[in-house]
Write a structure and sequence with these properties.
heterodimer, A: 141 residues, mainly beta, five-stranded mixed barrel, four-stranded antiparallel beta sheet, globular, B: 380 residues, alpha/beta, ten-stranded mixed beta sheet, two-stranded antiparallel sheet, 12 strands
């Protein structure tokens, strides 16, 4: 049975907690869920299906690699995030699109990107914000 | 069932009024609309008020200033579509025969929030991970540029056109024309957007008097503007892949609105569309069928959407120049279209304007193109 990571503690808050689990070797994995009724899959795991309202949801491990659908670098918004703040949508091979912060300097649409867990920023009181990110692993195929 | 007509409009110039209460920003717009319609406060049977961030009972707070309480007042929150949704409610009530004269208000005071990007709900997964509205539109723009070869200069041209229109609209917040070079040289906000490709934040209000055919004849005569379509819909959740270069909710809404009006894109002389960021206006040209998919950049460059072009888009200056006090925007779009259809717009008058549409859409929620969209079509 997959369990979400309980990573938040004093001085550290895991913003993606609901979507982070541990793999067989203790490595972080990205969790989503599949609706037993309509078969739609999504990130993070939820208790009721936003597509059909079904309540039988099965937690699933998401593919660790995807393709960057679009991205931007943001100069406004919350002061807590690490700068420059790069954001994007990643298309996973199972048909799920996930919004994520991107870790790295240069991105292009179509890049192959991989899941990782990293520091996203800091609260004003110094609390470290941790969550999933995607890193560039190769150019478009 | 009655038809619904617009018989009066008014607005408080969009701008920054940090020292005024929201109610004091809004009541002059209501009085202006009443005077424009030639109706007395006692003639108004009900009011619908749209505001996204104005707090509780904005309608009562506004109408309490001017002795118009004791009637049914319904407050509507639907993000950027708040006052266009309020208009939709008013039109439905008039068409149903419930009322003959109804007031619609849109009112917002964004300076009360201290500036910056629009506050989104932090119970949203994407917001928790850094989403802000400029980023959402910017990612649409990046993909559109990738797919269709739209250039940065074409993108900037949206702001140039709309700032030019705003410069001849006394109700616009931004009244200085800008050049492509100035747009591109302004400070970066979210790639590919620079500051001048983002709507300003501000305050403002607009008011509309909706009347039944019978009441319109009595008060407005030939000045009445007919509501041909009043459409309102919500976004559809999807967790999977979707094409971010075409706005699902507006494509669906425009189809419904055209069907209700019995018209098509070729019949529209002017359109006030939701240009919160430069890319949005281009995407909406295509969603409304003014041009084909991927053609928006060239369509803009051809001058087709200028005042005097095939279809004048955002002759008021749009959100980019007129401003975007969120909940007031939809009602203010109607103010512009009604004035254009009556031929009252002077230097920015759209020649021979017979049919116009308004389009307000918004709400950043994970899994949606947008949360809400309201489209109206009007004719003289």
């Amino acid at each position: 049975m997959l369990q979400p990571v309980q990573g938040s503690e004093a001085g550290r808050r895991v913003v993606s907690e609901a979507a982070l689990g541990k793999g067989p070797k203790g490595e972080p994995v990205l969790l989503g869920c599949r609706c037993d009724a309509c078969a739609n899959e999504m990130v993070p795991p939820v208790v009721v299906c936003p597509v059909c309202g079904g309540e039988a949801m099965t937690t699933t491990v998401q593919p660790g690699e995807g393709v960057l659908y679009t991205h931007t670098t943001v100069h406004v918004g919350g002061a807590t995030w690490k700068r420059p703040l790069r954001l994007g949508y990643v298309d996973l091979p199972n048909g799920v699109r996930i919004f994520a912060q991107l870790d790295g300097d240069a991105f292009a649409i179509g890049d192959r990107v991989a899941f990782d867990v990293s520091t996203l920023g800091r609260e004003t009181d110094g609390t470290e914000l941790v969550g999933y990110v995607f890193k560039r692993v190769g150019a478009a195929r | 069932m009655s038809e619904a007509d617009i018989i009066g409009v008014g607005m408080t110039r969009f701008g920054k009024y940090p020292d005024k209460h929201l109610a004091d920003i809004a009541w002059p717009a209501v009085k202006q609309a009443l005077a424009d319609a030639g109706v007395e406060p006692k003639d108004v049977q009900a009011a619908y008020c749209g505001s996204a961030l104005g707090g509780m009972m904005v309608g009562q707070r506004v109408l309490a200033r001017i002795g118009m309480t004791g009637i049914p007042i319904t407050n509507v929150e639907n993000a950027c579509s708040s006052s266009s949704t309020a208009l939709h409610q008013a039109v439905m009530a008039v068409r149903a025969g419930k009322y003959d004269v109804v007031l619609v208000i849109g009112a917002e005071k964004l300076t009360a929030l201290g500036g910056g990007t629009l506050p989104l709900n932090d119970d949203d997964w994407e917001v928790q991970h850094g989403m802000v509205m400029p980023a959402l539109y910017a990612m649409r723009a990046m993909r559109y540029m990738h797919d269709y070869g739209l250039t940065r200069e074409q993108l900037a041209l949206v702001s140039v056109k709309n700032r030019g229109n705003g410069a001849i609209n006394l109700d616009a917040q931004m009244q200085k024309p800008v050049t492509v070079d100035e747009v591109l040289a302004s400070r970066p906000i979210a790639e590919p957007f620079t500051l001048l490709q983002c709507c300003p934040t501000g305050d403002g209000a607009a008011a509309i008097i909706v009347a039944s055919e019978k009441a319109a004849k009595k008060f407005a005569g030939k000045r009445a503007i007919r509501v041909l379509a009043s459409d309102m819909t919500s976004g559809k959740f999807t967790s999977g892949f979707r094409d971010m270069t075409t706005p699902e909710i507006t494509v669906r809404g425009s189809k419904e609105a055209y069907e209700e009006a019995g018209l098509g894109p070729e019949d529209i002389n002017l359109a006030e569309v939701h240009d919160a960021f430069s890319i949005a206006e281009l995407i909406y040209y295509e969603a409304f069928g003014f041009c084909g998919r991927g053609e928006a950049g060239n369509f803009l460059e051809s001058g087709a959407t200028k005042i005097g072009g095939k279809v004048a888009v955002n002759p008021s200056g749009g959100l980019l120049a007129k401003g975007h006090p969120v909940g007031a925007t939809g009602a203010a779009q109607v103010v512009e279209v009604v004035r254009q259809l009556r031929g009252e717009c002077g230097a920015r008058q759209v020649p021979d304007a017979k049919v116009g549409l308004t389009h307000a859409t918004g709400g950043g929620i994970a899994g949606f193109d947008h949360g809400a969209c309201s489209i109206h079509i009007f004719a003289r």
